[in-house]
Design goal:
Elements (H helix, E strand, L loop, with lengths): L1 H14 L3 H32 L4 H11 L5 H10 L11 H50 L2 H6 L2 H26 L2 H15 L1 H9 L2 H37 L1 H6 L3 H51 L3 H42 L20 E10 L4 E11 L3 E6 L5 H8 L7 E6 L2 E2 L5 H6 L1 E5 L9 H6 L7 H10 L3 H5 L18 H15 L3 E5 L7 H15 L3 E5 L11 E6 L2 E6 L1 H6 L3 H8 L3 H8 L1
Parallel strand pairs: 3-8, 3-9, 6-7, 7-8
Antiparallel strand pairs: 1-2, 1-4, 4-5, 9-10
Length: about 625
């Protein structure tokens, strides 16, 4: 019951939108259960009519004529008038009743069961669809620190496998758990009216079904935890193998990866087998109990001299009674399997975002004055990467950021986009703290061109249009021309409609970078951030891309983060970072003329001696 409660509590936020479907399913399930009870009454009435009354029954009948009949007997008398009766002539009413009543009951039962299954399965499917959308929305809302602590495989398993397990649980919750208890109650009530002694015999055997069902459900839960654990490990390995296939081939890691994957697959198969055994063992165990109950019923019939009609009705009732018991036991196994998945999904949905938008956040549509860092300090949880940093980027100026790897250069970009918030200090745009602004408006202020170009497995036109929602074809082509990408796009088989593969594998590094620049052109944001935009390109590609960047910089405020110092030559000011602190600042010529980190880096890149005279 505790696991069932968890599933229901977890489902509640998603149930409200689907209440009409759930209500329709509950009504059809209730009627289905009621018709099961009615079926037993009709069966008993039919067998009573086929059998010639005994002297004992005749005595009872004559007594009833002079006494007030119970409701149950009145119902049986009314049914008896519509069914063929021994030693009495057939009339049209009895013929129609004998032919149609039982089939009509069966038709209505089948129809109600179909409606119950349809409404509840549809409700469950829609709830899980809502859940998957909510999970993806939640993932999009979480801060970058969450993704640094998580693995792609685990998140994929939560969205796909855990929601599938939850769907199975919700399906049985709505179809079986909502319908079968009503069926059991209706059958027990009908059987008790027909013969309470035989009903008690059947009830006494119910614990024989419940105990093994609970035991097996616990084993299923343990197996489910193992399946999820190994599925996550296997999924992570698969993602790493496919994304790093060149490294795997280069270091001859194919055999080792396959062996690891095979081990995980074998462990996964073991847990899946345990779950399968736990699920399939329930049904035969309940069949044994049901068979034992039927044997006891036959003995009681003989011992107590119970009528054939009562025996037949109760025997059918026992069959109808143990069928939903069996389904509920199977459902309990599914509930146990889904409970662990529900917990994992709950943990994800309850994960707080460290970067949140204030309820009264201000809109920002234009950039007027400056960006200002005021005593900003930041760490990733262990080591401080930005220490008490203060500087201003005036509108229309070009600011360069230089420093060794790990100096905190790229962290500045993450802070500007508000992927993270500073530990202390403030970042202001036009005097407004970033934490007081609408996040979407803030990020629309920036265009980013980085060394890590993310290309999606879509057409070139769609990849460029990511920079601006609803961009027209003319705008896309104009952005490509400005980025120097139009010429190579036109040479592709389908031009702008060419699908360029996952991560843009069909394009060169320079081509991918030009698409990234085209996105920035079409986005047309007032502030441009270039994060090592040409660091991974060869000299020819860098020259082509750099020309596009020069065009992109016109009329914009620019922040350039670079390890290759030559790209900072025309910056208005350059900040040199070391261990998260500003150790030098000035223009390119001034920094080359000074003894310090910048000149040291320039000497290592072979540019200090060649450019010093020109810059000065």
């Amino acid at each position: 019951m505790e696991e069932l409660k968890k599933i229901i509590i977890f489902s509640m936020p998603f149930l409200k939108r689907r209440m009409p479907l759930i209500f329709a399913g509950l009504i059809s399930g209730f009627l289905f259960g009621a018709f099961n009870g009615a079926y037993l009454f009709i069966l008993k009435a039919a067998i009573d009519n086929f059998s010639a009354p005994t002297s004992h029954q005749q005595a009872i009948s004559s007594t009833e004529k002079t006494s007030k009949k119970h409701f149950y007997q009145k119902v049986m008398d009314q049914l008896g008038r519509w069914l063929p009766k021994a030693n009495e002539p057939l009339d049209w009413k009895r013929i129609c009743g004998g032919i149609l009543i039982l089939p009509l009951i069966a038709i209505f039962r089948g129809l109600l069961r179909l409606l119950n299954s349809y409404f509840m399965t549809l409700a469950a499917a829609k709830i899980v669809a809502d859940l998957q959308s909510a999970i993806l929305s939640k993932l999009h809302s979480l801060s970058m620190d969450f993704f640094h602590k998580s693995t792609t495989g685990d998140l994929a398993i939560r969205i796909l496998n855990d929601t599938k397990a939850f769907y199975d649980s919700v399906s049985v919750l709505f179809t079986d758990i909502a319908k079968d208890p009503i069926t059991i109650i209706a059958i027990l009530f009908s059987c008790a009216l027909i013969d309470w002694r035989l009903t008690i015999v059947a009830i006494l055997l119910v614990p024989g079904c419940i105990v093994p069902a609970i035991t097996l459900a616990k084993k299923a839960r343990e197996a489910s935890m193992g399946i999820i654990s190994y599925s996550v490990a296997q999924s992570n390995l698969l993602f790493e193998s496919l994304s790093g296939i060149q490294v795997i081939k280069a270091f001859c890691l194919e055999k080792k990866n396959v062996e690891t994957f095979r081990h995980q697959a074998n462990e996964l198969a073991k847990h899946a087998a345990k779950m399968s055994i736990a699920g399939t063992m329930v049904s035969p165990m309940i069949d044994v109990v049901a068979s034992f109950a039927l044997s006891l019923l036959i003995l009681c019939v003989i011992w107590q001299n119970i009528s054939i009609a009562n025996m037949a009705a109760i025997a059918n009732g026992a069959i109808l009674f143990f069928a939903p018991i069996k389904r509920l036991a199977d459902a309990n196994v599914k509930i146990q399997e889904g409970a662990y998945s529900a917990k994992r999904l709950t943990d994800l949905l309850d994960t707080p975002s460290t970067v949140q938008e204030k309820p009264n956040a201000k809109a920002i549509k234009t950039f007027k004055k400056q960006i200002e860092f005021q005593n900003v300090t930041f760490n990733y949880g262990h080591e401080t990467v930005i220490k008490n940093l203060s500087f201003i980027i005036p509108k229309g100026k070009k600011m360069g950021i230089a420093g060794r790897s790990g100096a905190g250069k790229t962290t500045l970009t993450s802070l500007l986009f508000r992927f993270y918030d500073p530990v202390s200090g403030s970042i202001l745009i036009d005097g407004e703290d970033l934490r007081d602004l609408k996040i979407e408006d803030l990020r629309n202020m920036f265009s980013l061109v980085s060394q890590d170009v993310v290309i999606f497995n879509r057409s070139i036109a769609e990849n460029i249009a990511i920079g601006k929602a609803g961009a027209s074809r003319e705008e896309i082509e104009q952005a490509a021309k400005q980025a120097g990408a139009h010429e190579f796009i036109e040479k592709l088989p389908q031009g702008y409609d060419t699908i360029i593969g996952e991560r843009g594998v069909k394009l060169s590094g320079g081509q991918r970078q030009r698409l990234s620049i085209a996105r920035a052109f079409i986005r047309n944001s007032p502030i441009l951030i270039l994060d090592e935009a040409t660091s991974s390109l060869d000299s020819h590609s860098e020259s082509v891309v750099q020309q596009a960047i020069y065009q992109l910089e016109i009329g914009r405020t620019v922040l350039i983060i670079a390890h290759r110092l030559s790209t900072l030559a025309d910056c208005d000011e350059i900040l040199v970072l070391d261990k998260g602190e500003i150790v030098q600042r000035g223009n390119f010529g001034e920094l080359l003329a000074q003894e310090g980190l910048f000149r040291s880096m320039a000497l290592h890149q072979g540019i200090a001696t060649t450019l010093e005279g020109v810059a000065s």
